[in-house]
Amino acid sequence: MTFIAKPKLRHPELQRNKHGFTRRDYEGAVSTLCAGCGHDSISAAIIQACYELELPPHRVAKLSGIGCSSKTPTYFLGNAHGFNSVHGRMPSVLTGANLANRDLIYLGVSGDGDSASIGLGQFAHILRRGVNMVYIVENNGVYGLTKGQFSATADRGSKSKRGVENHSASIDLVMLAIELGATYVARGFSGDKSQLVPLIKGAISHRGAAFIDCISPCIAFNNHSGSTKGFDYVREHNEAVNFLDVMTPRDEITADYAPGSVQEIKQHDGTVLRLRKISEDYDVHDRVAAMHYLQKSKAAGDIVTGVLHVDPESPDLHDTLGTVSAPLNSLGKKELCPGKSAIDKFNAARR
Amino acid sequence: MPERKINNFVIKFANVNGSGSASANKLFARSILRMGVPVSARNIFPSNIQGLPTWYEVRVSEKGHLGSRGGVDIMVAMNAQSWNQDQLDIESGGYLIYDSSRPVPASKFRTDITVIGIPITDICNREFKDPRQRQLFRNMVYLGALSSLLAIDIAEVERLIQEQFSSKEALVSPNVQALHFGMDYAAEHFDCPIGFRVKRSSSVGSKIFIDGNSAAALGCVYGGATVAAWYPITPSSSLAESYEKFCKTYRHDHDTGRNSFASIQAEDELASIGMVIGASWNGARAFTCTSGPGISLMQEFIGLAYFAEIPAVIFDVQRGGPSTGMPTRTQQSDILSCAYASHGDTKQILLIPSDPKECFDFGYQAFDFAEKFQTPVFVMSDLDIGMNDHLTDPLEWNDEITYDRGKILSKESLDELAQFGRYLDVDGDGVPYRTLPGTHPSKGAFFTRGTSRDRYAKYSESGVDYQDNMQRLQRKFEQLRTQLPAAIIEEGKTKASIGVIYYGSTEPAMKEALQYLEEDGVSLDSMRIRAFPFGDEVSEFIDSYDRVFLVEQNRDAQMKSLLVSECNVDPNRITSILHYNGSPITARFIRSEITQSLDALKPSRKRKSISQKS
Ligand SMILES: Cc1ncc(C[n+]2csc(CCOP(=O)(O)OP(=O)(O)O)c2C)c(N)n1
Ligand code: SF4
Ligand SMILES: [Mg+2]
Questions:
Q1: Is A176 part of any domain?
Q2: Per-residue pLDDT for A239 more than 60?
Q3: A211, A130 in Cβ contact below 8 A?
Q4: Does any domain span residue B613?
Q5: Which chain A residues have a beta carbon less than 8 Å from that of B260?
Q6: Residue A263 included in any domain
Q7: Alpha-carbon span B408 to B371, nearest angstrom
Q8: Distance A145 CA to ligand 2 centre (A)
């Protein structure tokens, strides 16, 4: 675990943005995730994106489900309210929060277990309702927090740390999101900051349901085969004692590659991810073409990254409901209560 | 003609679901109300949309006994499928009214009742061309016949038809015509009125006729609820639908076309309660409405709201369990699953209305309780109150009433605060201060989670912090005892040594039974429980009688269990009277159960009095 205390003192030379905030104002508590966990890189990218967009941090509401990924909202935007809700149900809590106050920025953080298994239903419905938000799934293909069980995004045929083979087809959240009507859909990789930060900034700036599937390697539970010698030793030790006893901190896996190109990423467990960055002439507005392209790439074994689909014009949930422009939570008795004269009339009509 | 038949009878309509009878039957009930005579009306319907039998039972009672009575004096048998049973249900000396268009052999009729045949189909076929009208106006024909037979003022029925179709003028005259065909036929062929009849009175007073779900929905509008999230389930759906309907009237700005409410039909009950929690966390007043199966699905989230101290208002319109149970029948069988809803040590607030008026009152008050105490609040209605029209006191609202939003810190108060602790017991009442997202740039933000945190909402798995928090929650709960609607205690005519406890929709049957028992020479004091946690008056009441009956509409004596475990009373001192067949409890049932139970005790009583004499 990383317990590196951050210096409390504010450096006078730290740059301030137009609201007078420094980058530090976008940070949160110290992460307690495993050193090298992809999720921490995503938190860093969120911090960077919010800083670059010069958002007032307290105008963001961070909502999550349960999992290592869902813990991360404490590690960024410390001056924003956060809500660690229940497993798989962040979307409904976020929807309710959004209904109450349409003026805040809603950031939903979830895991692949949280969104593709227990929460698949809520994942689907929040997207089809067009809730104005950014929904990020920190996708590691496993249940990190409960120690390495398969998630529904794990590829068919892959083996878990316990040597169990996954026989079920995997769920591709990006394809589902496009199908369900999300109006900004992207996929990133936790280690590719130069791509991820703009993806998050695009999602925040989008008005409507924005979804980002972010591949995020888990250093603890993707550590079975093809690893370095030292790592093999750790694995054997842990297998012998039958629980996770020793863990070696690992370096974050990074990537940097050009649009249109493919980069093979070797994870800590030796598995290889083939990331294909979409080329610059890709048309994000063509939903049908996007789905076709994703299917083709999947068949070829590529994981496509980048902004995959955008529909900038579609109405959000408040538009569909026709709610007033003032946040509902700002209305009081004066605006909400029909009063005594109305009740007298109401009674009279029921005699 | 015996007096007791005037303004005192039960009439039941046996119809086919989906045949348009519901609106005609309601007209019947309302026309009697317009004559100043109290009625109660109950739908008995299957879980089906079209085709199965459905019944509408109207009890006419000058004395205002409006619980279900049991037994039928007049059966309007419009459904061949249930014909046999319907006839059997008629009390001896009663009436059977049926469609005589097709001859029925005399052997098919009971001999101890009066049979009145109206050729309804023939009349409709003769008078109307359109097959749809022929079907629809059958209901108006029998309504007309009943007006003659029961001496209902036809002018009242006509006025109601006019009001009902005020926006569809063209429908008024064929409806009135059909009414008259029935009325004239009955007047020509029978000695009208028959024994049972309606006589103009002034017993209705200012009361209104409304179902509990509508009243509760209006309570939500008055209480300032802006977010509703729900999933359809009988018998609660009409609460959400009424809320939307009322909001279209009261919360829609005609100039801008905008709404100051949001109602979401969620994908399931988990999402419904999740949305309510999200909205309440963010400072809106929000509610959901459901029934037992939905409550089961919401359990995990309810625990989160309890521990994270987030307001949430949940209407449970109870029905018979389970999901494939008795969705269209009434019960009070979610008491325990709501009082202790969720995992871990949890206890929840229950408000238990007994009629639509209280559904309205508790409906708006629930939001104050939820916000003041930052916790879920259950309003425990049931199918009988929720889906049936009841004669109830007019709904009351005083413009002086303000919304108690509880302890929410504004930006200004945060500015003045040295340090904010979300779960800090500043006032010693167990209720901490909360902040809403987006309030202050640098103060008051925190990460909401269940219990793994300290008083300042900082992550902590320390057992000390956990216990500290649990004890504060307990303190908060304890002080609720004096803050919720108190139990209502009424004394019998003579000094009683027996008490009876009841709650919710049992009220009208209980009050009627108390009168009968009084007439039988058994005087009882009664207490109606209206909320959990219980106030001190509840255990004091139990302590002051030799014997206490507890009347409930469930099998397992759930309220008794709650009383025994929460008030530390001796279970042997409470005798349960339990009714759980899905139909509303009756005064007849309560009276006979109490009488039998007391009779069983008599020998020992006698012995006692003899020994006292000697
Ligand atoms: C109702 C419920 N069931 C099970 C759990 C246990 N649980 C906690 S986290 C988790 C899986 C998390 O996986 P994922 O969402 O992929 O997050 P990760 O830890 O991999 O980031 C499970 C099953 C729970 N918290 N709640
Ligand atoms: S277990 Fe995996 S997902 Fe969880 S913190 Fe460690 S590396 Fe990250
Ligand atoms: Mg995962």
A1: yes
A2: no
A3: no
A4: no
A5: 323-324, 328, 331, 335-336
A6: yes
A7: 9
A8: 7
pLDDT in the model for residue A249: 65
CB within 8 Å: B286 and A351: no
- Contact call for residues B220 and B287 (beta carbons, < 8 A): yes
> What pLDDT score does A164 carry?
73
Q: What is the CA radius of gyration of chain A?
A: 22
CATH number at residue B494: 3.40.50.920
Domain that holds residue A299: 23-321
Sign, CA dihedral A229-A232-A237-A240, equals negative
The closest of B348, B220, B230 to B294, measured between CA atoms, is B230
Q: Output the pTM of the full model.
A: 0.94
Q: Do A91 and B268 touch (CB under 8 A)?
A: no
pLDDT of residue A19: 82
Residues B254 and B175 occupy one common structural domain: no
The residue of chain A nearest to residue B34, with distances taken between CA atoms, is A351
Same domain, B226 and B309: yes
Please write the tens of the pLDDT for every residue from A41-55.
Answer: 999 999 999 999 999
pLDDT value at residue A222: 66
Question: Does any domain span residue A273?
Answer: yes
Query: Residue A4: which pLDDT band, with cuts at 50, 70 and 90?
Result: very low
Sequence-ordered list of residues with C-beta below 8 angstroms from that of B255, at least 6 positions apart, any chain: none
Q: Is A11 exposed, middle or buried (0-12, 13-18, 19+ CB in 10 A)?
A: exposed
Choose which residue among A32, A114, A222 to substitute to test ligand 1 binding: the one with the highest number of ligand atoms within 8 A of its C-beta.
A114
Q: Residues near ligand 2 with C-beta < 6 Å?
A: A 33-34, 37, 39, 68, 140, 144, 218-221
Amino acid at B240: A
The number of distinct structural domains making up chain B is 4
Please tell me whether residues B115 and B72 are part of one structural domain.
Answer: yes
Do B387 and B270 lie in a common domain?
Answer: yes
Q: Does position B582 have pLDDT exceeding 50, yes or no?
A: yes
Chain A environment of B256 (Cβ under 8 Å): 324
The answer to whether the CB of A88 is under 6 A from ligand 1 is no
- Is residue B59 within 8 Å of B40, Cβ to Cβ? yes
Nearest to B445 among A80, A323, A325 (CB): A80
| Percent of the residues in chain A that have a pLDDT greater than 70, as a whole number | 86
The ipTM value here is: 0.94
In this structure, are B19 and B102 located in the same domain? yes
d(C-alpha B108, C-alpha B364), whole Å: 53
Please count the structural domains in chain A: 1
Q: What is the pLDDT of residues A115-127, one digit of tens each?
A: 999 999 999 999 9
Tell me how far apart the alpha carbons of residues A348 and B10 are, in angstroms, rounded to a whole number: 26
Here the CATH number for the domain that contains residue A237 is: 3.40.50.970
Residue B277: list chain A partners with CB under 8 A. Answer: 85, 93, 96
Q: pLDDT at residue B37 above 70?
A: yes
Q: Which atom of ligand 2 is nearest to the CA of A222?
A: 2
The DSSP string of A255-305 is ----TT-EEEEE-TTS-EEEEEEPPTT--TT-HHHHHHHHHHHHHTT-EEE
Instruction: Determine the structural domain holding residue B457 and report its residue range.
Output: 411-481
Domain contains A270: yes
Same domain for B244 and B267, yes or no, is yes
Position B597 in a domain:
yes
Is residue B403 assigned to a domain? Answer: no
C-alpha distances (whole Å) from A75 to each of A16, A26, A63, B252, B416 are 20, 9, 13, 42, 27
